[in-house]
């Protein structure tokens, strides 16, 4: 019944293993380009009038929170904690665990 999920999970694992053999610098550059492109699409095309968000007292405070603290906390919560916990419980469900973590991350932004 769920054989297609197992095949999809195995395909996902194979693709991740193939990516892990690439040069780290190329992977980082590729990730930055994708992140920058997605940010531009959301900021300039989908939501150009969006101005909600916290107000900061200084540019240094804003820079520190946005560049260092927020990504660190998001990574710890939505990647390390959730993914490592679920992979300990169901080690062969890599695709499910990644999708579940991503859905929780996206759901957090909808609130």
Which percent range fits the helix content?
Answer: over 70%
Work out the radius of gyration: 17 Å
Question: What is the overall number of helices?
Answer: 4
Succession of helices and strands: HHHH
Q: Mean pLDDT score, rounded?
A: 83
Characterize the overall form: globular
| β-sheet strand percentage | under 5%
- The end-to-end distance, rounded to whole angstroms, is 34 Å
Which parts are unreliable, with pLDDT below 50 for 5 consecutive residues or more?
none
The number of strands is 0
Largest sheet: none
SSE-based structural type: mainly alpha
Task: Characterize this entry briefly.
By secondary structure, this protein is an all-alpha fold.
Keyword list:
single chain; 111 residues; mainly alpha; globular
Q: Your description of this structure?
A:
This protein is mainly α. The chain has four helices and no strands. It has helices at residues 3-20, 24-46, 59-89, 94-110. Helix 3 (59-89) packs antiparallel against helix 4 (94-110). The longest helix is centred in the middle third of the chain and has 31 residues, at 59-89. It is globular. The chain starts with a helix and ends with a helix. The model has no long low-confidence stretch (mean pLDDT 83).
């Amino acid at each position: 019944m769920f054989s297609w999920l197992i095949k999809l999970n195995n395909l996902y694992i194979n693709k991740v293993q193939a990516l892990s053999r690439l040069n780290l610098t190329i992977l980082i550059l590729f990730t930055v380009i994708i992140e920058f492109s997605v940010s531009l699409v959301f900021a300039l095309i989908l939501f150009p009038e969006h101005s909600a968000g916290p107000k900061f007292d200084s540019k240094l405070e804003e820079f520190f929170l946005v560049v260092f603290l927020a990504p660190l906390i998001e990574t710890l919560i939505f990647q390390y904690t959730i993914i490592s916990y679920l992979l300990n419980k169901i080690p062969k469900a890599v695709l499910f665990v990644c999708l579940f973590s991503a859905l929780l991350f996206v759901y957090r932004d909808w609130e």
